[in-house]
Design goal:
The complex is a heterodimer.
Chain A (H helix, E strand, L loop, with lengths): L1 H28 L1 E7 L2 E7 L5 H11 L9 E5 L2 E2 L15 E7 L2 E4 L2
Parallel strand pairs in A: 1-5
Antiparallel strand pairs in A: 1-2, 3-4, 3-5
Chain B lengths: L3 E3 L1 H16 L5 E7 L2 E9 L4 E3 L2 E4 L1 H14 L1 E9 L8 H5 L9 E5 L14 E7 L2 E4 L2 H5 L2 E3 L2
The chains are: A alpha+beta, B alpha+beta.
């Protein structure tokens, strides 16, 4: 009987662990971000841990900017995001809009 | 071929900004926007705050972020950027490399003599269309003359 109880308890812990794992996965999947480029939005649902580079690449493809993205970055609250780490880790809450835009616009005769 | 509808107010606002910067001996940059739902009709001429010299303009990331946020909120999109030169109009390598928008079809219009000749009919202006992947196409004069429907 004791073994049985122990088994149940173990099973209970295992079940809780599975629930927690599911919650983590669900939480990661539920991270939603909208990327806006030149007034047009593109919304993507990803894991919260995915590097911003993945979001950047998807947006560049969506907006057909391949080959033109050298001067572009992702910006949130006026700050350029580090593409090597996730948006969530840089303080961008799920449901936010980030801007895909040039770092600078220049005109000149040189 | 695409044709832009350019209201008088947009043209006058742009010319006024060109004259204002030109009076200080500076180049100027103005952006024309359309409603996303009606991409041929220009609705606003936006004079982006910019640094400028007699031969250059520059807009920083913070200004661009404010502008792009505003576009999203208004449901507008930028379809052309216009800047002035002190002398003849042409597209420099800097103009090629650092535009506001990198979408195919985006227009860059350069007005000569700080825009003192006005914009109606794009007199002596240089017009280029972005073709993607860093490539621009210069519009021939006959195409420039048909580019805009002016007034009203």
């Amino acid at each position: 009987m004791l073994l049985g109880i122990s088994s149940i308890r173990s099973g209970s812990r295992a079940t809780k662990g599975a629930v927690m794992q599911n919650e983590t996965n669900e939480s990661e999947r539920e991270y939603k971000v909208t990327v806006a480029y030149n007034g047009r939005p593109f919304t993507e649902e990803i894991a919260s841990t995915v590097p911003a580079q993945v979001v950047f690449n998807k947006a560049v493809k969506y907006f057909e900017l391949e080959g033109s993205a050298g001067n572009l970055g992702l910006f949130f609250n006026g700050r350029e995001m580090n593409l090597a780490v996730s948006l969530a880790s840089q303080g961008v809450p799920s449901g936010s809009t980030v801007l895909l835009q040039p770092r600078v616009v220049r005109n000149g005769e040189e | 071929m695409r044709r832009l509808v350019i209201p008088d107010e947009v043209r006058r606002t742009t010319e006024k900004q060109f004259r204002s910067c030109g009076a200080r001996g500076h180049e100027c940059l103005v952006v024309w926007t359309c409603s996303i739902a009606s991409p041929s009709r220009i609705v606003r001429a936006v004079h982006l705050p910019h640094a400028a010299t007699a031969i250059s303009t520059q807009v920083d990331a913070a200004t661009l972020a404010e502008f792009n946020g505003d576009l999203l909120a208004r449901g507008e999109t930028a379809v052309a950027q216009l800047h002035t030169h002190p002398g003849a109009a042409f597209h420099s390598s800097t103009d090629d490399e650092y535009p506001l928008v990198h979408s195919s079809g985006f227009l860059s219009i350069v007005a000569p003599s700080f825009g003192e000749g006005g914009l109606f009919g794009f007199p002596r202006c240089f017009v280029a269309e972005y073709r993607g992947r860093g490539h621009w196409r210069s519009l021939p004069a006959e195409e420039v003359s048909l580019l805009a429907q002016w007034g009203f």
